[in-house]
Amino acid sequence: MNRRRLLIGLVGLVVLIACFQGWRRWQLAHPDRSHTMTILTQDMRTHCVGRLLIDLPQHTTWKSRSSGARIGNLNLSVTTGVSREQFDQMVKKRWLEVQAIKADSSGTPYMKQSERIDHSEHGLILAYAFEQIHVPDINGVWKDQVFHNAEGYFWDRGTLFEIKQKLNGKDDIAKLFPRLRARAPDEIPSQPGLCLNGAFISGFYDMQERENLIWPFQLPRNMGLVVKHNRVGRPQPSLLERELESRGAATAWLNAMLKPGDVYEEHLFRRAQHQIGELIGDELVSGELEGRQEYGYDTSIGGVWEFSGQGAPSPVPQIELNLNARNFDTSYIPSPAGGFPKPEDAPNGPTEAEFFEVWDAVINSVRIRPNALTPPPK
């Protein structure tokens, strides 16, 4: 009789555990998205970010030099609030530095002097370090070829574009200059192209040209948002696939690194597919806690929403949004471990309710800007 009762009890326990695990999986895949709207999301402003439109809370800010992009083989950064006098002084100083570059690191003189190529009154290209190298061409034929470094500077109405050092980039930089212009923070262009902070780069969505963008924002209540999008020729492995594949290796590494007394806990808030309009993406929100009883605990919490992108015949970039709360330092382990601390211990925020109110409002607003993905004429 005792054995029978024990067996029934074990079966009941297994069923209970299975039910709990099933409920937990369902909860992760079906999060509660009903929020009481507060002042945080009552006044959302639409921003042009890359080729996207995203609604962000009022009082969202970003640094004067915040966004960057890769266009073709060129890396470009933007700085706002630069006067014409500051631009002229900067390029004058840089031109003097470039003129002084006369030999390589071994002391071998370069074959010609540095060049300054003025592009209208707003831009210039600096080319330097000219050297002849015996290398194979694209057909495998060895011949002497001349190489150089180039960098570009362009100014328009207070916005400075800097194109980083590029090998043999003189012609590519010259072709990019006519596509650059300043943009007001609330301007939403109607033509195809890419928005950066205070800037616009016109251009069709050309699958033959590489294009990457990154733009970080500072949101109210100590939340940081980073938006990225990358041109891809085909859908990339999904966020949840990559997370699942890496979980085993990450767990093994953590177990090997943890010392006696170390505490590490992870809490999953959400892990599911989340479709926004026609963009079928993945959502992962989690928190991590680490520390020791004698030193206290550090908790980091963040969310990722990612669309894997698609190729021809209707290409769409891979899109990624990351929202992170500031790190929380506590003398205790929050409940759940990896979750938000008590509100009184984080008066500057965000609370769990504030984080998810902003998170859902932001990611659910993501859409492609009209005409942004117009392909080149055939």
From TrEMBL:
What is the designated name of this protein?
Tle cognate immunity protein 4 C-terminal domain-containing protein
For this protein, the record's InterPro entries field holds: Tli4_C (IPR041290), Tli4_N (IPR040761)
List, for all copies, the residue spans of the domain called Tle cognate immunity protein 4 C-terminal: 187-371
Domain of life per record: Bacteria
Query: Which segments does the entry list as coiled coil?
Result: none
Which source organism does the UniProt entry give?
Stutzerimonas stutzeri
Q: Where is the Tle cognate immunity protein 4 N-terminal domain?
A: 45-171
